[in-house]
Batch of 4 targets.
Target 1
Amino acid sequence: MNLRKILGLKKGRRYPIQRDWSGKSLRQRCFEAFDEGKRPIQVVRELRVKESTIFTYFKQWKRFGPHIRKQIVFIKGLLAEGSPDRDRMMAFFAGTCGITIEEFQAILSLPHGLRRLLTRTLPLPVHKDIANKRVVALDAAMAIFDHIAIHGGSYEDVLYTVNHLMKQSQKHRQKIDSDIESLNRQLEVIAKLEEAAAEERRRRPKPHPIAIRKAQVEINQIFTAKLAEAELSYWLRKMELVKEGLTPEQARQRLTELLTDGYDIDRAQKMKAFQDKIDPV
């Protein structure tokens, strides 16, 4: 997984950072001077650097906020390998930024990764959510402006209407959330019941193959006995019809009507097949 591509991170520096005898970069020295209240012109004279570079660092210092270097040093101490709260702090910062711990570690390994994270110069999911909210607010403001420009109206009327619509939307959202929560509870109960049934099936002892074979033999015996009883009943009934004066063919037709009368189509076909087997035409 290419975390640089996913997070939109830039590549590292092409040239190494030039540091002074104390190990500080030019940016660090400029930021320290600005933290002390010095103006860019004073810093240009002291460090003897091009004005454009100093003013660029001054703009960055204003955008980042004063004492950004101290904040970075403090947070680096919290995230150091030997810190007792390192794991908790890693999870906290990753959750705040809306990314995983692995992605947060990848950002820290980049040049100025922590600085870019603190100054919000990285495209993170949490920033995307904020941007979406700003777009929604802007669309709503433009719609209200167009309505006032076309139809007129006072500020109080617009404010009342917006508050009323927001309350209605909030009630609708609460109802939807309540329905979703109720459905989730039902699904949870069903899942627990299915899990209990599966556990019961796993605990139920499996019958021995000999017992299964014995049960099959008993079932076949019962079926054979019932079939013989049905055949005997059929012939006795046919004999009674013949005694009543019907011919064997008429008795058979009468039994066909009796066997198939009042049944559904499938069962009638089965009864007809049973008669054809024991008393073919």
Target 2
Amino acid sequence: MKYLLVMPAAGSGQRFGDAQPKQYARLLGRTVIEWALAPFLADPRCAHAIVVIAAGDTAWSGVAARLAADRLGTAIGGAERSESVRRGLAALESRARPEDWVLIHDAARPCLDPHDLERLLAAVSAQGSGGLLAARAADTLKLSADGGAPAAAQTVDRSQLWRALTPQMFRFGALCAALDAAHAAGRLPTDEAQALEWRGERPLLVEGAATNLKLTAGEDLTLAAAILKARAPASGEGTMRIGSGIDVHAFGPGDHLMLGGVRVPHTAAVVAHSDGDVVLHALCDALLGAAGLGDIGQHFADSDPRWKGADSRQFVTAVLGMLRERGLRVVNADLTVLAQAPRIAPHREAIRRAVAALLGLPGDCVNVKATTTEGLGFLGRAEGVAAQAVVLLREG
């Protein structure tokens, strides 16, 4: 089967207690919305997804660029959730038939278990109408006389009560009609199932895990992180990412090279816009590559006058800041210098210590090697110098 997805993400999350909307909060190296989208973007049955954002949202473009998913589109939301969902459905009209399935999932639900998604798809498609994930009410429930607290309360029978979750799954045409009818009557359903209920439908409840929580307050991030970590491999380690980088510079007039932030005397210098430190440039490319953030040229263009003669340690420091924003940390780095001259051995330890300090790593987590090309090529003719870097990053 194929299905479509609408993810409302236009809310401001005022109760979350953060300057940014909760869907863009950092959670184990990703934003919350990236976790929320992950089960669907990993599912080939999801034919297309629309993320509904607020007008003036400046954060989504960066997330979309990282996801780089050709099945992902965007719509601008309304003042209420149901209005945003309807606008997301409108953005799918050219792709959807009335009988197609469409799923609605909250951007603030990062802990959907893929097994629950499978159960929903199987149960609702077999039933043929529509339904939603739900969790049994586990706590003793009280009814307040006036809806506030403190107040006199009465215990409510919870045996037939469920908490509505997402995704919710309905036929495209039926959901559009139900939302249109609700809005025409001046009614704002709190979820999609309610809009169908108002038209006489009885959506199917499919039991899902209570861990499919919706982030409301800032402390919910801690709980979400614990849930996601519990699903990680038994080692308990976060996802690891490997990156590699290469940089080359030709020799020109001068009396030294910068290698790993260390001044190395030589009969030539490198031709470069910045200080031409091939070791640190290769390291930046490796770090950026592991994080999926492009390359050094995208962030520190050699046509930008700000970087004229710049100390390449600035580049590494800036890249490390980008990694921290994404919850990534460096585990180790392996660096290789390729040059016929100068000899690297007398400077190897100084380079290793300098790079380790720059990365904030113990000395044994950085390795520096050097090799020649046995007289072959432009390196063998001592026309330039090159470096290669390989790094390991870890999320969390």
Target 3
Amino acid sequence: MRQEMKADATESRDVRKRKAEERTAANVRKKAKQAAVRDHAETILSTSLVTSLTELEIQLQARCSASSARCAFLRDQFHARVSGETPRLYPGLGTEFRSKHGKLKLTPSDGTTNKEAYLKALITAMITEDGDVIGNPNALPTFTENYIRVLPTLSAEYTNPIAFCMKEDFARQIADAAAPQDDPVYVELHGNYIGKILYDFETRSNAKLFRIVSIQFVRSFTAGRHSCWEATCEPVVRDPATGHFRVPLEIQVPGSNVTLTHALQGYCLAEYVDGLDSEPTMHPWVQSYIDHFLTVIKPKFSNIGMDLPSTTPTNSSSETHKDSPSLSRTPKRRTRPPDR
């Protein structure tokens, strides 16, 4: 009897320990996913936030091939505006965009309203209200660098100058510690690949020439796919008059320089096969495509100049493009040759 009770107690402890570890792991995954969502929203806010109705319409036309892509784009625009420590409240938006508790919602209240139409109306109203508050600093989110409480100065006239200097030095140290830094892997990949022309000699598609326009980190939360660094490429053709490469007009939104998203192509550059704490595994095929272009394709063009056209992506929504680890126009698919 005592042996059985002892075995039961040991088994109970093991079960409680295992359950506790499972809850901890689940909580870690949940927090990581929430952090990734917030990071994505902040990236959209700083790199590809739509600020006008004309720009919104162009971006939606660029995703004309799939309603799911348009809905995902609209959701990203929503989260970019309401995420963060001091999100916008949008008091001008009516009850049709709010839940019964007054919170802005992403889904229509009735089941008959088209979800895409609802999201478009919501973002349109938010952009309109954004334009109404320009010039009113009290209506916009405010940010501060005072992450650590500093005692106020009651009288500057009777304060020791040494104390002023120490406070200024302390503020500089805090600002330096809080300054964002680029991922070293991203910096390396950006320097090696951004703006390069590649020739995909292994694809069956007619489009084989591409230009790398952005590099982003793609986080995976499933066991079947590794987190990776991905290069987004736009198809290009050679202009016989100049010898430069440009995006064909038929795959751009009319009247703009925005490329249709279904024409973009993604290539995996590096994967975290052993987890994010380990070094990424670099893949060779993109470099082989670049080498093939330089050694086989480029010499065939007699009048091609040494200077290729500007590497500013032609499918950005502004004159200056900022590529980022979570770009909204990244294609959902990834193309790569089979493992050899």
Target 4
Amino acid sequence: MSRTQRGWDFDLPNFDGMYFLSASDMFVASGGGTGTITRVASGEWSLRISTTTATQVVGPLSTILLRFGQQDDLQQQFGSARAGGAQGLPVGWPNTFSTSSVSAGSAVSIPVLSSVNFAVGQAILVDTVGSGVQEYTYITAIADGTHVTATLANAHTTPFPIAANVFTTPAGVTGTPPYTGVTEFTPVTSFRPKGVLIKQITPRYAINTANAATNTIGITQTIYNNGAAPTVSTILTNAANGLATTTTAQPYVTPIPIPVANQAFTTARNVDVLVEWDITNGTSGTVDLFGIEIVCSFNYD
């Protein structure tokens, strides 16, 4: 292959990704229960829950490499009316957030945290893919440091991001050649999946001596917004989800699928994805939490 300064963009993600939270990656929230990293046997360590108080255990997935998406670098446009290429600008810059909801219309004044570094005539991407109303438009005026003007095809609920030079229109044909006729020149209309999509978790744990009173687990995604309340969504509802509560001589390994409707690539900025594991012991005994396997699809190409 000849040398190139460009990256290769792949449409389809790899489906066999695995990520592991070990006992030492999880921690007990303050104000409820206690947990201690415990050597159960050689090569076997747990976060041991040893009180009858309801105990909240958190496993952050913050160290997983996520992507918010970037604009395709098109070497040819095939007559497309949309501008492409990086134009020598940093990907995803400049960017800001709305401070008020807006309605569809022409010459819409969009209140933003800051209009600094934006320019009249600049192409911008408004809102997120997950909103269902993401759109691509152009700035027609900048009234002041906290407003930009653009024509909007959709209404948008604050807070929504506004960014320039970002991942906008996928290019090329998806699938294995040969391609037929004009399909070679037809761009893909859905965005390329990038980053990580969680499909299943598998907690590993042992319930010792006495049955546990409760054993539930869930996953949330929290997006932090400047000057506004965080936006929390559920990836897996915190519930029993098949987890056991009876004592066992050997560890449980319990696969829990993520509902298909909740499976999506995490593309938001300033986001935390957290696993919360809640346990209440019985009258005596302990619970050993050995870790959690995270099964995911991933696309970093």
